[in-house]
Design a protein that fits this description.
alpha+beta; about 40% helix; about 180 residues; about 20% strand; Beta Polymerase, domain 2
Amino acid sequence: MSSPEAGPVPVWAHEAVEIVPANSRWPELAAAEISRLERALAPRLVAGIHHVGSTSVPGLEAKPILDLLAGIRDHTPDPDPALTALGWHLVPVELDGQPWRRFYVLPKNEKRYAHLHLVVPTSPQFRIVLTFRDQLRAAPETTRAYAALKQELAERHRTDREAYTRAKASFIEGVLARSLQPRE
């Protein structure tokens, strides 16, 4: 759907959930995008830009979309001109549903190529995203379980990205609960 104010809905906004084999080039592609973003976000960047999500975990099957987390000083409701100049599209908060971040999509060939999560680093979500990534990198058995779950959910929710994401939540919460427990 589209409204006169918002313009037409882009093709990438409704693409199917697809899990592909791990690509050894994902870290290199993320590093190149991070380099472009560091220059664009320099005035607001306070905690670096991190490659997160499944494409940041070696050997993990994933949606072929780079996820990047940037620790920024503040949020603005309007699109960042430096990001839009690089081809990034702001997803309005009312559509994203996550008021703790500003969410951008970088399309290529009418598909999502990368996601950018702008988060104030004092937000608990900043630490949560990094902790989950680090747990997957450190625990092969957790990574295998997550891969199997993602394949199953991608088949079940192929045409509903939001349902796919919601269905992963309890697994992610379980991993985080175990990793954030105090060690004896």
